[in-house]
Design a protein that fits this description.
Pfam families: HAMP (PF00672), HATPase_c (PF02518), HisKA (PF00512)
Shape: elongated
Strand content: 5-15%
Largest sheet: 5 strands, mixed
EC number: 2.7.13.3
Keywords: ATP-binding, Cell membrane, Coiled coil, Kinase, Membrane, Nucleotide-binding, Phosphoprotein, Transferase, Transmembrane, Transmembrane helix, Two-component regulatory system
Main location: membrane
Order of helices and strands: HHHHEEHHHHHEHEEHEEHHEE
Enzyme class: transferase
Radius of gyration: 42 Å
Distance between the termini: 116 Å
Helix content: 55-70%
Number of strands: 9
Number of helices: 13
Length: 530
Protein backbone atom coordinates (compact mmCIF):
# COMPACT_ATOMS: atom_id res chain seq x y z
CA UNK A 1 0.00 0.00 0.00
CA UNK A 2 2.78 2.38 0.86
CA UNK A 3 4.44 1.61 -2.42
CA UNK A 4 1.23 2.28 -4.29
CA UNK A 5 0.77 5.49 -2.43
CA UNK A 6 4.35 6.35 -3.09
CA UNK A 7 4.01 5.57 -6.77
CA UNK A 8 0.74 7.40 -6.80
CA UNK A 9 2.40 10.35 -5.14
CA UNK A 10 5.20 10.23 -7.63
CA UNK A 11 2.71 9.96 -10.47
CA UNK A 12 0.81 12.97 -9.20
CA UNK A 13 4.02 14.94 -8.81
CA UNK A 14 5.11 13.96 -12.30
CA UNK A 15 1.79 15.07 -13.71
CA UNK A 16 2.09 18.35 -11.81
CA UNK A 17 5.62 18.91 -13.03
CA UNK A 18 4.63 18.22 -16.62
CA UNK A 19 1.66 20.53 -16.25
CA UNK A 20 3.90 23.28 -14.98
CA UNK A 21 6.39 22.73 -17.79
CA UNK A 22 3.66 22.78 -20.43
CA UNK A 23 2.08 25.86 -18.91
CA UNK A 24 5.44 27.60 -18.69
CA UNK A 25 6.29 26.67 -22.27
CA UNK A 26 2.90 27.81 -23.53
CA UNK A 27 3.07 31.02 -21.52
CA UNK A 28 6.55 31.68 -22.82
CA UNK A 29 5.43 31.21 -26.42
CA UNK A 30 2.47 33.54 -25.92
CA UNK A 31 4.68 36.16 -24.28
CA UNK A 32 7.35 35.79 -26.96
CA UNK A 33 4.71 36.14 -29.68
CA UNK A 34 3.34 39.37 -28.24
CA UNK A 35 6.81 40.73 -27.53
CA UNK A 36 7.79 40.04 -31.14
CA UNK A 37 4.64 41.78 -32.32
CA UNK A 38 5.44 44.74 -30.10
CA UNK A 39 9.02 44.89 -31.36
CA UNK A 40 7.87 44.83 -35.00
CA UNK A 41 5.29 47.54 -34.32
CA UNK A 42 7.86 49.78 -32.57
CA UNK A 43 10.38 49.21 -35.34
CA UNK A 44 7.82 50.10 -38.03
CA UNK A 45 6.87 53.19 -36.02
CA UNK A 46 10.51 54.27 -35.87
CA UNK A 47 10.94 53.71 -39.61
CA UNK A 48 7.80 55.73 -40.43
CA UNK A 49 9.00 58.61 -38.23
CA UNK A 50 12.49 58.48 -39.73
CA UNK A 51 11.04 58.41 -43.26
CA UNK A 52 8.98 61.53 -42.51
CA UNK A 53 12.08 63.23 -41.08
CA UNK A 54 14.09 62.39 -44.22
CA UNK A 55 11.37 63.97 -46.37
CA UNK A 56 11.52 67.13 -44.27
CA UNK A 57 15.32 67.21 -44.59
CA UNK A 58 14.94 66.80 -48.36
CA UNK A 59 12.54 69.76 -48.38
CA UNK A 60 15.08 71.80 -46.38
CA UNK A 61 17.80 70.86 -48.89
CA UNK A 62 15.55 71.94 -51.78
CA UNK A 63 14.85 75.30 -50.11
CA UNK A 64 18.58 75.88 -49.65
CA UNK A 65 19.22 74.79 -53.22
CA UNK A 66 16.71 77.28 -54.63
CA UNK A 67 17.36 80.19 -52.25
CA UNK A 68 21.11 79.92 -51.63
CA UNK A 69 21.97 78.31 -54.99
CA UNK A 70 23.88 75.58 -53.19
CA UNK A 71 24.80 73.19 -56.02
CA UNK A 72 25.82 70.32 -53.73
CA UNK A 73 23.61 67.32 -54.64
CA UNK A 74 25.40 64.82 -52.41
CA UNK A 75 22.96 65.44 -49.52
CA UNK A 76 20.00 64.98 -51.90
CA UNK A 77 21.32 61.62 -53.14
CA UNK A 78 22.06 60.49 -49.58
CA UNK A 79 18.51 61.37 -48.48
CA UNK A 80 16.98 59.47 -51.41
CA UNK A 81 19.15 56.44 -50.56
CA UNK A 82 18.03 56.64 -46.91
CA UNK A 83 14.34 56.83 -47.89
CA UNK A 84 14.68 53.85 -50.23
CA UNK A 85 16.33 51.83 -47.46
CA UNK A 86 13.57 52.78 -45.02
CA UNK A 87 10.85 51.82 -47.51
CA UNK A 88 12.54 48.45 -48.06
CA UNK A 89 12.81 47.94 -44.32
CA UNK A 90 9.13 48.86 -43.85
CA UNK A 91 8.06 46.42 -46.57
CA UNK A 92 10.09 43.64 -44.96
CA UNK A 93 8.60 44.44 -41.56
CA UNK A 94 5.08 44.50 -43.04
CA UNK A 95 5.63 41.01 -44.52
CA UNK A 96 6.78 39.70 -41.13
CA UNK A 97 3.83 41.45 -39.47
CA UNK A 98 1.41 39.73 -41.87
CA UNK A 99 2.89 36.35 -40.95
CA UNK A 100 2.23 37.08 -37.27
CA UNK A 101 -1.27 38.49 -37.84
CA UNK A 102 -4.07 36.36 -36.50
CA UNK A 103 -7.23 38.41 -36.27
CA UNK A 104 -9.12 40.03 -39.19
CA UNK A 105 -8.59 43.40 -37.55
CA UNK A 106 -4.81 42.86 -37.60
CA UNK A 107 -4.87 41.94 -41.28
CA UNK A 108 -7.02 44.98 -42.09
CA UNK A 109 -4.61 47.34 -40.32
CA UNK A 110 -1.61 45.72 -41.96
CA UNK A 111 -3.30 46.17 -45.36
CA UNK A 112 -3.73 49.88 -44.59
CA UNK A 113 -0.04 50.18 -43.80
CA UNK A 114 0.92 48.31 -46.98
CA UNK A 115 -1.28 50.68 -48.98
CA UNK A 116 0.37 53.67 -47.29
CA UNK A 117 3.78 52.24 -48.13
CA UNK A 118 2.82 51.88 -51.80
CA UNK A 119 1.76 55.54 -51.90
CA UNK A 120 5.02 56.61 -50.21
CA UNK A 121 7.10 54.52 -52.64
CA UNK A 122 5.36 56.16 -55.58
CA UNK A 123 5.89 59.60 -54.04
CA UNK A 124 9.61 58.98 -53.43
CA UNK A 125 10.06 57.78 -57.02
CA UNK A 126 8.23 60.88 -58.29
CA UNK A 127 10.37 63.19 -56.14
CA UNK A 128 13.54 61.45 -57.27
CA UNK A 129 12.56 61.83 -60.93
CA UNK A 130 11.61 65.49 -60.50
CA UNK A 131 14.69 66.50 -58.52
CA UNK A 132 17.20 64.51 -60.57
CA UNK A 133 15.89 65.46 -64.04
CA UNK A 134 14.66 68.94 -62.96
CA UNK A 135 11.65 68.65 -65.21
CA UNK A 136 10.08 71.10 -62.77
CA UNK A 137 12.31 73.79 -64.31
CA UNK A 138 9.78 74.20 -67.14
CA UNK A 139 7.39 75.93 -64.73
CA UNK A 140 7.63 79.70 -64.19
CA UNK A 141 9.58 80.69 -61.08
CA UNK A 142 6.41 81.74 -59.20
CA UNK A 143 4.74 78.40 -59.85
CA UNK A 144 7.82 76.23 -59.41
CA UNK A 145 7.77 76.24 -55.61
CA UNK A 146 4.04 75.45 -55.52
CA UNK A 147 4.62 72.57 -57.93
CA UNK A 148 7.46 71.26 -55.78
CA UNK A 149 5.30 71.44 -52.65
CA UNK A 150 2.57 69.58 -54.57
CA UNK A 151 5.11 66.89 -55.49
CA UNK A 152 6.27 66.65 -51.88
CA UNK A 153 2.92 66.57 -50.13
CA UNK A 154 0.43 65.08 -52.62
CA UNK A 155 0.19 62.05 -54.82
CA UNK A 156 -2.63 62.72 -57.25
CA UNK A 157 -5.50 63.56 -54.84
CA UNK A 158 -3.98 61.92 -51.76
CA UNK A 159 -2.56 64.18 -49.04
CA UNK A 160 0.67 62.40 -48.11
CA UNK A 161 1.05 64.41 -44.90
CA UNK A 162 -2.25 63.06 -43.60
CA UNK A 163 -1.35 59.62 -44.93
CA UNK A 164 1.98 59.57 -43.04
CA UNK A 165 0.37 61.01 -39.91
CA UNK A 166 -2.40 58.37 -40.03
CA UNK A 167 0.18 55.61 -40.58
CA UNK A 168 2.26 56.79 -37.63
CA UNK A 169 -0.82 57.10 -35.39
CA UNK A 170 -2.05 53.67 -36.43
CA UNK A 171 1.38 52.19 -35.76
CA UNK A 172 1.45 53.84 -32.33
CA UNK A 173 -1.91 52.27 -31.50
CA UNK A 174 -0.77 48.86 -32.72
CA UNK A 175 2.48 49.15 -30.75
CA UNK A 176 0.54 50.09 -27.61
CA UNK A 177 -1.86 47.15 -28.09
CA UNK A 178 1.04 44.76 -28.67
CA UNK A 179 2.80 45.98 -25.54
CA UNK A 180 -0.42 45.67 -23.53
CA UNK A 181 -0.93 42.14 -24.86
CA UNK A 182 2.64 41.24 -23.87
CA UNK A 183 2.04 42.62 -20.39
CA UNK A 184 -1.16 40.60 -20.10
CA UNK A 185 0.62 37.48 -21.32
CA UNK A 186 3.32 37.93 -18.72
CA UNK A 187 0.62 38.43 -16.12
CA UNK A 188 -0.98 35.15 -17.16
CA UNK A 189 2.43 33.51 -16.84
CA UNK A 190 2.77 34.79 -13.32
CA UNK A 191 -0.76 33.72 -12.42
CA UNK A 192 -0.16 30.27 -13.88
CA UNK A 193 3.09 29.88 -12.02
CA UNK A 194 1.53 31.04 -8.77
CA UNK A 195 -1.44 28.70 -9.17
CA UNK A 196 0.78 25.78 -10.00
CA UNK A 197 2.98 26.66 -7.05
CA UNK A 198 0.00 26.74 -4.72
CA UNK A 199 -1.20 23.41 -6.06
CA UNK A 200 2.23 21.92 -5.63
CA UNK A 201 2.38 23.25 -2.10
CA UNK A 202 -1.02 21.70 -1.24
CA UNK A 203 0.04 18.34 -2.67
CA UNK A 204 3.31 18.58 -0.82
CA UNK A 205 1.41 19.08 2.43
CA UNK A 206 -0.84 16.07 1.73
CA UNK A 207 2.12 13.90 0.80
CA UNK A 208 4.46 15.48 3.31
CA UNK A 209 4.30 12.50 5.72
CA UNK A 210 5.74 10.17 3.07
CA UNK A 211 7.89 12.62 1.11
CA UNK A 212 8.86 15.39 3.53
CA UNK A 213 12.45 14.22 3.89
CA UNK A 214 13.09 14.15 0.14
CA UNK A 215 10.68 16.69 -1.28
CA UNK A 216 10.83 19.61 1.14
CA UNK A 217 13.91 21.29 -0.28
CA UNK A 218 12.96 21.11 -4.01
CA UNK A 219 9.47 22.41 -3.31
CA UNK A 220 10.84 25.21 -1.15
CA UNK A 221 13.30 26.14 -3.92
CA UNK A 222 10.50 26.15 -6.47
CA UNK A 223 8.35 28.37 -4.29
CA UNK A 224 11.24 30.75 -3.75
CA UNK A 225 11.88 30.91 -7.50
CA UNK A 226 8.27 31.73 -8.33
CA UNK A 227 8.29 34.46 -5.69
CA UNK A 228 11.48 35.96 -7.12
CA UNK A 229 10.03 35.90 -10.63
CA UNK A 230 6.79 37.46 -9.44
CA UNK A 231 8.74 40.25 -7.72
CA UNK A 232 10.67 40.99 -10.94
CA UNK A 233 14.01 39.33 -10.10
CA UNK A 234 14.40 37.72 -13.55
CA UNK A 235 18.07 36.88 -12.91
CA UNK A 236 17.09 34.43 -10.16
CA UNK A 237 17.56 30.75 -11.01
CA UNK A 238 16.38 27.65 -9.15
CA UNK A 239 19.07 25.21 -8.06
CA UNK A 240 18.66 21.97 -10.00
CA UNK A 241 18.64 19.28 -7.33
CA UNK A 242 16.43 16.67 -5.72
CA UNK A 243 14.28 14.13 -7.57
CA UNK A 244 14.41 13.97 -11.32
CA UNK A 245 10.97 15.40 -11.75
CA UNK A 246 11.79 18.48 -9.71
CA UNK A 247 15.13 18.87 -11.42
CA UNK A 248 13.35 18.90 -14.79
CA UNK A 249 10.84 21.37 -13.45
CA UNK A 250 13.64 23.58 -12.18
CA UNK A 251 15.31 23.52 -15.59
CA UNK A 252 12.10 24.46 -17.36
CA UNK A 253 11.48 27.23 -14.89
CA UNK A 254 15.00 28.54 -15.32
CA UNK A 255 14.66 28.37 -19.10
CA UNK A 256 11.41 30.31 -18.95
CA UNK A 257 13.04 32.93 -16.68
CA UNK A 258 15.99 33.14 -19.08
CA UNK A 259 13.71 33.71 -22.06
CA UNK A 260 11.72 36.37 -20.23
CA UNK A 261 14.90 38.09 -19.09
CA UNK A 262 16.39 37.90 -22.59
CA UNK A 263 13.21 39.30 -24.11
CA UNK A 264 13.20 42.17 -21.64
CA UNK A 265 16.86 42.94 -22.25
CA UNK A 266 16.30 42.72 -26.00
CA UNK A 267 13.43 45.17 -25.78
CA UNK A 268 15.58 47.50 -23.69
CA UNK A 269 18.34 47.14 -26.29
CA UNK A 270 15.97 48.14 -29.07
CA UNK A 271 14.90 51.15 -27.05
CA UNK A 272 18.52 52.20 -26.59
CA UNK A 273 19.17 51.75 -30.30
CA UNK A 274 16.24 53.99 -31.19
CA UNK A 275 17.42 56.63 -28.74
CA UNK A 276 20.97 56.45 -30.10
CA UNK A 277 19.65 56.73 -33.66
CA UNK A 278 17.64 59.81 -32.71
CA UNK A 279 20.70 61.36 -31.07
CA UNK A 280 22.84 60.51 -34.10
CA UNK A 281 20.31 62.06 -36.48
CA UNK A 282 20.11 65.15 -34.32
CA UNK A 283 23.90 65.45 -34.31
CA UNK A 284 23.98 65.04 -38.10
CA UNK A 285 21.37 67.77 -38.49
CA UNK A 286 23.34 70.10 -36.21
CA UNK A 287 26.49 69.31 -38.16
CA UNK A 288 24.72 70.03 -41.45
CA UNK A 289 23.46 73.37 -40.12
CA UNK A 290 26.97 74.24 -38.91
CA UNK A 291 28.39 73.37 -42.33
CA UNK A 292 25.82 75.57 -44.04
CA UNK A 293 26.62 78.45 -41.73
CA UNK A 294 30.32 77.95 -42.33
CA UNK A 295 29.72 77.90 -46.09
CA UNK A 296 27.84 81.20 -45.82
CA UNK A 297 30.70 82.76 -43.86
CA UNK A 298 33.19 81.51 -46.43
CA UNK A 299 31.11 83.02 -49.21
CA UNK A 300 31.05 86.43 -47.55
CA UNK A 301 34.78 86.20 -46.90
CA UNK A 302 35.39 85.23 -50.52
CA UNK A 303 33.63 88.33 -51.90
CA UNK A 304 35.58 90.49 -49.48
CA UNK A 305 38.87 88.96 -50.61
CA UNK A 306 37.95 89.32 -54.27
CA UNK A 307 37.12 93.03 -53.94
CA UNK A 308 40.50 93.73 -52.33
CA UNK A 309 42.88 91.39 -54.11
CA UNK A 310 41.73 92.23 -57.65
CA UNK A 311 42.06 95.98 -57.11
CA UNK A 312 45.87 96.17 -56.96
CA UNK A 313 46.77 94.43 -60.27
CA UNK A 314 43.83 96.09 -61.99
CA UNK A 315 45.09 99.50 -60.83
CA UNK A 316 48.56 98.66 -62.15
CA UNK A 317 47.14 97.74 -65.56
CA UNK A 318 45.04 100.91 -65.74
CA UNK A 319 48.01 103.05 -64.60
CA UNK A 320 50.30 101.53 -67.20
CA UNK A 321 47.73 102.17 -69.93
CA UNK A 322 47.24 105.80 -68.78
CA UNK A 323 51.00 106.44 -68.86
CA UNK A 324 51.23 105.19 -72.44
CA UNK A 325 48.25 107.34 -73.47
CA UNK A 326 49.75 110.53 -72.09
CA UNK A 327 51.53 112.84 -74.52
CA UNK A 328 52.14 112.12 -78.15
CA UNK A 329 52.93 109.04 -80.13
CA UNK A 330 55.61 106.73 -78.75
CA UNK A 331 57.98 104.34 -80.42
CA UNK A 332 57.08 100.67 -80.88
CA UNK A 333 59.63 99.63 -78.25
CA UNK A 334 57.85 101.74 -75.63
CA UNK A 335 54.54 100.21 -76.56
CA UNK A 336 56.08 96.73 -76.48
CA UNK A 337 57.55 97.33 -73.02
CA UNK A 338 54.24 98.76 -71.79
CA UNK A 339 52.31 95.82 -73.19
CA UNK A 340 54.83 93.48 -71.57
CA UNK A 341 54.25 95.13 -68.20
CA UNK A 342 50.48 94.98 -68.74
CA UNK A 343 50.85 91.29 -69.58
CA UNK A 344 52.82 90.74 -66.39
CA UNK A 345 50.17 92.55 -64.37
CA UNK A 346 47.43 90.57 -66.11
CA UNK A 347 49.26 87.35 -65.28
CA UNK A 348 49.50 88.50 -61.70
CA UNK A 349 45.78 89.24 -61.75
CA UNK A 350 45.07 85.72 -63.02
CA UNK A 351 47.26 84.31 -60.26
CA UNK A 352 45.37 86.35 -57.68
CA UNK A 353 42.09 84.97 -58.98
CA UNK A 354 43.47 81.44 -58.61
CA UNK A 355 44.61 82.21 -55.07
CA UNK A 356 41.25 83.68 -54.13
CA UNK A 357 39.46 80.64 -55.49
CA UNK A 358 41.73 78.53 -53.33
CA UNK A 359 40.95 80.82 -50.40
CA UNK A 360 37.20 80.25 -50.60
CA UNK A 361 37.68 76.48 -50.75
CA UNK A 362 40.10 76.46 -47.83
CA UNK A 363 42.26 79.27 -46.42
CA UNK A 364 45.12 76.80 -46.03
CA UNK A 365 45.30 76.21 -49.78
CA UNK A 366 46.49 79.79 -50.25
CA UNK A 367 49.55 78.88 -48.23
CA UNK A 368 50.60 76.05 -50.54
CA UNK A 369 54.00 77.42 -51.55
CA UNK A 370 56.39 76.59 -54.37
CA UNK A 371 59.84 77.42 -52.98
CA UNK A 372 62.86 78.41 -55.02
CA UNK A 373 66.30 79.65 -54.03
CA UNK A 374 67.15 83.16 -55.24
CA UNK A 375 70.33 85.15 -54.91
CA UNK A 376 69.77 88.26 -52.81
CA UNK A 377 70.62 90.63 -55.71
CA UNK A 378 67.98 88.92 -57.88
CA UNK A 379 65.40 89.10 -55.11
CA UNK A 380 66.27 92.77 -54.48
CA UNK A 381 66.04 93.61 -58.21
CA UNK A 382 62.63 91.95 -58.58
CA UNK A 383 61.34 93.76 -55.51
CA UNK A 384 62.58 97.16 -56.79
CA UNK A 385 61.09 96.43 -60.20
CA UNK A 386 57.69 95.75 -58.64
CA UNK A 387 57.93 98.83 -56.39
CA UNK A 388 59.01 101.00 -59.31
CA UNK A 389 56.08 99.84 -61.43
CA UNK A 390 53.60 100.66 -58.67
CA UNK A 391 55.33 103.99 -57.85
CA UNK A 392 55.30 105.11 -61.49
CA UNK A 393 51.62 104.20 -61.76
CA UNK A 394 50.91 106.44 -58.70
CA UNK A 395 53.35 109.22 -59.72
CA UNK A 396 55.42 108.51 -56.61
CA UNK A 397 59.16 108.70 -56.00
CA UNK A 398 61.14 105.56 -55.11
CA UNK A 399 64.44 105.60 -53.23
CA UNK A 400 66.48 102.49 -52.40
CA UNK A 401 69.63 101.62 -50.50
CA UNK A 402 71.59 98.53 -49.48
CA UNK A 403 72.86 98.37 -45.90
CA UNK A 404 74.37 94.88 -46.06
CA UNK A 405 78.02 94.01 -45.47
CA UNK A 406 80.22 92.94 -48.39
CA UNK A 407 79.56 89.44 -49.66
CA UNK A 408 75.82 89.66 -49.42
CA UNK A 409 75.53 89.11 -53.17
CA UNK A 410 76.49 85.41 -52.77
CA UNK A 411 73.78 84.64 -50.22
CA UNK A 412 70.44 83.11 -51.16
CA UNK A 413 66.92 83.22 -49.78
CA UNK A 414 64.35 80.42 -50.20
CA UNK A 415 60.84 81.68 -50.94
CA UNK A 416 57.82 81.45 -53.20
CA UNK A 417 58.57 84.28 -55.64
CA UNK A 418 54.97 84.78 -56.72
CA UNK A 419 53.70 84.97 -53.15
CA UNK A 420 56.66 87.18 -52.15
CA UNK A 421 55.84 89.71 -54.87
CA UNK A 422 52.19 89.55 -53.81
CA UNK A 423 53.26 90.60 -50.29
CA UNK A 424 55.36 93.45 -51.72
CA UNK A 425 52.39 94.65 -53.80
CA UNK A 426 50.12 94.64 -50.74
CA UNK A 427 52.65 96.63 -48.69
CA UNK A 428 53.35 99.13 -51.48
CA UNK A 429 49.67 99.53 -52.30
CA UNK A 430 48.88 100.41 -48.67
CA UNK A 431 51.88 102.79 -48.46
CA UNK A 432 50.85 104.69 -51.60
CA UNK A 433 47.15 104.64 -50.77
CA UNK A 434 47.66 106.36 -47.41
CA UNK A 435 50.35 108.82 -48.53
CA UNK A 436 49.84 112.52 -49.22
CA UNK A 437 51.11 113.70 -52.66
CA UNK A 438 53.89 113.91 -53.59
CA UNK A 439 54.26 110.33 -52.36
CA UNK A 440 57.66 108.83 -51.68
CA UNK A 441 58.75 105.28 -50.90
CA UNK A 442 62.07 104.30 -49.32
CA UNK A 443 63.24 100.68 -49.70
CA UNK A 444 66.24 99.18 -47.96
CA UNK A 445 67.97 95.80 -47.78
CA UNK A 446 70.04 94.44 -44.90
CA UNK A 447 71.28 91.11 -43.54
CA UNK A 448 70.75 90.46 -39.83
CA UNK A 449 73.18 88.20 -37.94
CA UNK A 450 73.99 86.37 -41.15
CA UNK A 451 70.69 84.48 -40.86
CA UNK A 452 67.88 86.77 -42.00
CA UNK A 453 67.18 88.94 -45.01
CA UNK A 454 65.69 92.22 -43.78
CA UNK A 455 63.64 94.24 -46.28
CA UNK A 456 62.15 97.55 -45.19
CA UNK A 457 59.65 99.81 -47.00
CA UNK A 458 58.97 103.23 -45.50
CA UNK A 459 56.39 105.78 -46.60
CA UNK A 460 55.63 109.39 -45.70
CA UNK A 461 51.91 108.79 -45.19
CA UNK A 462 49.41 109.46 -42.42
CA UNK A 463 51.06 107.06 -39.94
CA UNK A 464 49.47 104.55 -37.54
CA UNK A 465 48.54 105.29 -33.91
CA UNK A 466 50.48 103.01 -31.51
CA UNK A 467 47.31 101.53 -30.03
CA UNK A 468 46.23 100.28 -33.49
CA UNK A 469 49.52 98.57 -34.41
CA UNK A 470 48.68 95.19 -32.74
CA UNK A 471 45.40 94.99 -34.67
CA UNK A 472 46.69 95.74 -38.16
CA UNK A 473 46.99 92.05 -39.11
CA UNK A 474 43.47 91.16 -37.98
CA UNK A 475 41.01 90.42 -40.76
CA UNK A 476 38.79 93.40 -41.73
CA UNK A 477 40.44 95.78 -39.24
CA UNK A 478 40.93 99.37 -40.48
CA UNK A 479 42.00 102.23 -38.29
CA UNK A 480 40.14 105.51 -37.94
CA UNK A 481 42.75 107.45 -39.98
CA UNK A 482 42.73 104.84 -42.71
CA UNK A 483 38.93 104.97 -43.04
CA UNK A 484 39.02 108.74 -43.19
CA UNK A 485 41.85 108.86 -45.75
CA UNK A 486 40.44 106.10 -47.96
CA UNK A 487 36.86 105.02 -47.19
CA UNK A 488 36.96 102.03 -49.58
CA UNK A 489 38.75 98.84 -48.58
CA UNK A 490 37.97 95.87 -46.37
CA UNK A 491 41.20 95.42 -44.40
CA UNK A 492 42.28 91.95 -45.53
CA UNK A 493 45.49 92.62 -47.50
CA UNK A 494 47.81 92.71 -44.51
CA UNK A 495 46.11 89.64 -43.05
CA UNK A 496 46.84 87.60 -46.18
CA UNK A 497 50.36 89.04 -46.44
CA UNK A 498 51.19 88.12 -42.83
CA UNK A 499 49.93 84.56 -43.29
CA UNK A 500 52.04 84.13 -46.45
CA UNK A 501 55.15 85.44 -44.67
CA UNK A 502 54.51 83.11 -41.71
CA UNK A 503 54.19 80.18 -44.15
CA UNK A 504 57.64 81.12 -45.52
CA UNK A 505 58.92 81.02 -41.91
CA UNK A 506 59.41 84.77 -41.93
CA UNK A 507 58.16 87.73 -39.91
CA UNK A 508 56.18 90.81 -40.96
CA UNK A 509 55.97 93.84 -38.66
CA UNK A 510 54.88 97.50 -38.89
CA UNK A 511 56.42 100.39 -36.97
CA UNK A 512 55.11 103.94 -36.67
CA UNK A 513 55.41 106.76 -34.15
CA UNK A 514 51.81 107.75 -34.85
CA UNK A 515 52.63 111.14 -36.39
CA UNK A 516 53.77 110.65 -39.96
CA UNK A 517 54.83 107.68 -42.01
CA UNK A 518 55.15 103.99 -41.26
CA UNK A 519 57.86 101.40 -41.84
CA UNK A 520 57.04 97.81 -42.81
CA UNK A 521 59.83 95.31 -42.10
CA UNK A 522 59.88 91.91 -43.78
CA UNK A 523 62.30 89.28 -42.45
CA UNK A 524 62.96 86.04 -44.30
CA UNK A 525 65.42 83.27 -43.31
CA UNK A 526 68.46 82.90 -45.54
CA UNK A 527 69.26 79.57 -47.19
CA UNK A 528 71.81 77.47 -45.35
CA UNK A 529 75.11 77.11 -47.16
CA UNK A 530 76.04 73.50 -47.88
Amino acid sequence: MFRNKLWLSFGVLIILALSQAIAAYWSHNVAAFHIERGRLSNQMLSEFIALGADKQRLKVWLAEYLLLENKNTHDRDALFANMQQRLEALNALAVRDQLLGRSPDDLTQISRQVKALSFLEANVLTLERVLRTWEIAKYPSRERWAALIQAFDYLETTDLRELVADAIELQRERAARSEQAAVEALQRVRVTIVLLGILGSALAILLGVLLVSSLYRPINALLEGTEQLRSGALAHRIAISGPTEFAALARQFNRMAEHIQAAKEKDAGYTRLVEEEVRARTAQLEQAIAQLQDAERRQRRFFADVSHELRTPATAIIGEAEIMLRGGEKCPDDYRESLQRILESGSGLARRIDDLLLLIRSDNNLLRLEHSALLLPDCWALMLKELDRLAVAQSAELQSRVEAAPGWQQQRVVLDLDKFLMVIRVIADNALKYSVPPARLEASLAVEAGRYLRLAIRDQGIGVPPDELPQLFERHFRGARARKQCPEGLGIGLTIASRIVEAMEGELSIHSDGTQGAEVILKLPLARLS
